[in-house]
Design a protein that fits this description.
single chain, about 325 residues, alpha/beta, 8-stranded mixed β-sheet, two-stranded antiparallel ribbon, globular
Length: about 325
């Protein structure tokens, strides 16, 4: 399989970063957005309003024309998880066999669908895939060393996609465990909010380490209940991404948690790049855990705090007064 032309749908920080990344890998890139005026401005200035100080690679063509996307060899959908369905639906005319890679980390509310399931529903004939892992848009855009996981149902497709996007500084590790990669990305966002609450409340480094470790146990329980492989959950898209987002203010989910821990009432879906995916995933993650009998007390506490049915102090007290038990 040869992927000479790549279309990136979504010109936010992460979409622009991945477009530059694909260009560095030697691909021709179409960067699609809905706003024609913004696309024209980006073509002229070679700059993104979402990535200050980062030049758009010469091999990247910003566009608002969907027809430019339909001839691509592969498509990356880089929009928030709850918006992925509406964007994927616009690709119904895509020719069969083209890989469509979800680059969002979440689960759709209401339907409880994972990102590749939405792609399969909306784009019949496409090859659904997922890209996830410990990565910040600014690092990737600047060409700083980054490793992620790229999963597709077939080994050959996963390997070809990894080669198409990979470069000296962007290292996609291939996998066929699509569900495991999706679960790691979705669950870690919720747990990162919890880690931020710990930091915002000033509970200390020991509590932060305990929270991250026990959070990983929850992620693993959930993943195994939904068919994920343990090596995926302990890899880049699981443990690796959890470590990154539970320890850095660059993470929007962690920052949201910090604000909650300080007693602030942050807006859950601000404009542009401030959106924290975990705020939308928490409730559905807990619903799905309950369906399979998976115990996720940390995730449940985050969901209750976000729904304003439990205060931060009451959530902390509830977690600290759970019965003593064997580590497992």
């Amino acid at each position: 399989m040869s992927f000479d032309t790549i279309a990136v749908l979504g010109a936010g920080a992460w979409g622009t970063a991945l477009a530059n990344c694909a260009a560095r890998a030697g691909r021709k890139v179409v960067l699609w957005m809905r706003n024609a005026e913004v696309a024209a401005a980006m073509r002229k200035s070679r700059a993104s309003p979402r990535l200050r100080g980062i030049a758009i690679d010469a091999a990247v063509t910003p566009t608002a024309e969907l027809a430019d996307v339909m001839t691509a060899d592969t498509v990356l959908i880089v929009v928030p998880a709850q918006a992925l369905r509406s964007v994927a639906a616009a690709l119904k005319g895509l020719r069969a066999g083209v890989p469509v890679v979800a680059c969002a980390k979440g689960i759709e509310r209401g339907t409880r669908r994972f990102m590749t399931e939405i792609i399969a529903e909306c784009v019949p004939g496409a090859v659904p895939a997922i890209l996830s892992g410990p990565s910040f848009a600014d690092d990737v855009a600047r060409g700083l060393p980054t490793a992620v996981t790229l999963a597709a149902p077939a080994e050959a497709a996963a390997a070809a996609l990894a080669r198409a996007l990979g470069s000296a500084t962007f290292r996609p590790y291939r996998s066929t465990d699509v569900r495991g990669v999706e679960i790691g990305g979705a669950a870690k966002n919720v747990l990162a909010i919890a880690a931020g609450i710990v930091a915002g409340r000033g509970l200390g480094a020991s509590a932060a380490a305990a929270l991250t470790t026990r959070g990983f146990v929850e992620l693993t329980r959930f993943g195994r209940a939904y068919g994920a492989r343990i090596e995926t959950l302990t890899g880049l898209s699981g443990l690796g991404d959890l470590i990154l987002t539970c320890s850095s203010a660059q993470s929007r989910n962690f920052s949201l948690g910090v604000a909650l821990g300080k007693g602030e009432s942050p807006q859950l879906a601000p404009e542009g790049e401030k959106l924290a995916e975990g705020a939308f995933t928490a409730a559905v993650l807990v619903e799905m855990a309950t369906t399979r009998g998976v115990d996720m007390p940390i995730a449940a506490a985050v969901a209750a705090i976000l729904d304003k049915t439990l205060s931060v102090d009451d959530a902390i007290e509830a977690l600290l007064t759970r019965p003593f038990r064997a580590e497992a």
